[in-house]
Amino acid sequence: MNSSLTNETIVALSTPVGVGAIAMVRLSGPDVRQILSKIFVSKSSAKQLPKRTPVLGNFIDIDGEIFDEGQVVFYEKPNSYTGEDLAELFCHGSIAIYQFLIESACSAGARVAAPGEFTRRAFIEGKVDLVQSESVADLIASETKASAKIALSQLQGNLSERLEEIWQQIVEIGAHLEASIDFPDEFEPGAGPMVQGKPLFGEELTPLFVNAEASLKELEDSFRSGRVLREGARVAIIGKPNAGKSTLLNNLLGEERSITSDIPGTTRDTIEEVCDVNGIPVRFIDTAGLRDTQDPIEKEGAKRAYDAAQTADLCLLVLDSSKGKSEFEWAQHEAKKLETNKLIVLNKTDLVSSCLSGELIRGVEKVSISALQKKGFGLLKKSVFEILTGESLQGGNIMRTILTNERHKNLVNKARHSLKEAFVLCQKAYSPELVAVHLNDSSAAFSEILGKSYGESLLDKIFSEFCIGK
Ligand SMILES: Nc1nc2c(ncn2[C@@H]2O[C@H](COP(=O)(O)OP(=O)(O)OP(=O)(O)O)[C@@H](O)[C@H]2O)c(=O)[nH]1
Ligand SMILES: [Mg+2]
Questions:
Q1: Domains of the chain, residue spans
Q2: Does 266 contact ligand 1 (Cβ within 6 A)?
């Protein structure tokens, strides 16, 4: 699709497809007023539609026949979502009515919008940058409060602001280099043309390079938590038979999903269910108890348990604390086999007088719970959250700016590598021109993330993933 086709007026349903109390059809482009005059008859005596004010009236077809009563809100450019003239048409939520309304708008000169075209126009009109545009899709797709909050923060421009700050650091290094390229004869470290107060080259640029690279590294590393917050995570629950794995899953979910009993070997296959852990969607996988066995079904169950453990983002090693040493030794033995992140869950603490102190496995955290008495679940969830996201949970909030989108992460990585390359050449006293080539590559990556430079194919790719009406 060509972005320059904004001379057309587009129309689409912006509420979900299906029957509802009310549906909202959005109209955007140069002919909004003209189209409205053909399909909407206001009940107010005012000659012109007021701005940003709901107006009651009748929707009519092209022959002037009334088919619904509803409201219209008109937004005059540039003060609208798209930056163009825009109207929101609220009709009764019958499929027939909103389809008829869209058809009437098309008969009056509009065309049906492509997926994401409203947001694409907002981007073309400069209302939002590309990062903000992408966050609209994330916000709509968010399944938990945490992912919604991150997407909203990006929509409000926090990530863009952080990217602009780091970009500025790189531009500053570039400005110092430019000085030595433009005025080679005059240039000497500490002399020559003034660049932001003082021209620098070689060693003197080191702190600027180091700072910019550290900022990029921090941002790139945040993608680990960003991915989990956006897409969720998988957590396998493993342990010996009767350790209380299924009781643990049931209590996390608040329902009797897995069968529990005091007969060892109750769970035979894996059972998966999603639970909200402090705002992130976590898929917990209950597995068969692990023990030496000749039973072919149990063997298959154990294989599935290990498969789940190896592919999970985190593995809960559930131990029956009342069994003491034998369980601890088992955990130490199993932990060596698993490369996945681990958390030891000391269960059945209601049966023991004192909990194990000190480290059981080096570098592996532990939490004490009683799955039966539903005790310790707050701490368990907090630990799961912190291990999965690498963030500490401060009053349920993640405080810093993080990356959630793979496109952004790849470009931040590209920016960092080009910057590193420039730094190496600078340290080796290569010519400023050569250093500047790499610095420009780094800068170009920022430009691409924020959409300052873009190709139509990139926009097609990004906006095709949106729904129609967004
Ligand atoms: N006292 C006490 N009993 C518990 C606790 N958690 C589970 N149990 C009991 O331990 C027994 C085994 O629990 P399950 O949840 O079925 O254990 P499991 O690890 O899923 O066992 P398998 O499916 O056989 O591998 C049941 O009788 C539970 O009621 C606990 O925290 N305290
Ligand atoms: Mg079980």
A1: 10-128, 158-222+403-451, 230-389
A2: yes
User: 148-204 pLDDT, tens per residue?
Assistant: 888 999 999 999 999 999 999 999 999 888 776 665 554 444 444 444 445 566 678
Per-residue HEC secondary structure of 234-269 comes to EEEEEECCCCCHHHHHHHHHCCCCCCCCCCCCCCCC
To test ligand 1's pocket by mutation, which of 242, 263, 373 has the most ligand atoms within 8 angstroms of CB? 242
**Whole-number Å distance between alpha carbons of 176 and 168:** 13
**Ligand 1 neighbour 264 (Cβ under 6 A):** yes
Nearest CA to ligand 1 atom 11: 262
Tell the CATH topology of 158-222+403-451.
Answer: Four Helix Bundle (Hemerythrin (Met), subunit A) (1.20.120)
22 three-state secondary structure = strand
250 CA → ligand 2 middle, Å: 10
Any ligand 1 atom below 6 A from CB of 240: no
Question: What's the rounded Cα separation, in Å, for the pair 10 and 7?
Answer: 9
- State whether the beta carbon of 301 lies less than 6 angstroms from ligand 1: no
The yes-or-no verdict on residue 391 having pLDDT over 80 is no
- Containing 193, the helix (H) or strand (E) segment is none
DSSP alpha helix (H) spans, 115-265: 117-124, 130-141, 145-155, 158-182, 206-221, 223-231, 245-253
Cα of 296 vs centre of ligand 1, distance in Å, is 23
pLDDT in tens, 78-136: 999 999 999 999 999 999 999 999 999 999 999 999 999 999 999 999 999 999 999 99
Strand 366-368 vs strand 314-320: parallel, antiparallel, or unpaired?
A: unpaired
Has residue 219 got a pLDDT over 90?
yes
At residue 404, φ and ψ (nearest 5 deg) are -125, -10
Query: Would you say domain 230-389 falls under CATH 2.30.40.10?
Result: no
Asked if pLDDT for residue 267 goes beyond 50, the answer is yes
| 10-128 carries CATH number 3.30.1360.120 | yes
pTM of the full structure? 0.76
Residue 29, pLDDT > 80, answer yes
Give the span between the Cα atoms of 110 and 122, in whole angstroms. 18
Give residue for tokens 């026949």.
Answer: 65
Residue in 372, 373, 374, 375 to alter for ligand 1 test, most ligand atoms within 8 A of Cβ: 372
**What's the sign of the alpha-carbon dihedral 248, 249, 252, 257?**
negative
Q: Give the whole-number percent of the chain exceeding pLDDT 70.
A: 92
d(CA 432, CA 13): 54
The CA–CA distances, whole Å, from 247 to 179, 207, 361 equal 68, 55, 24
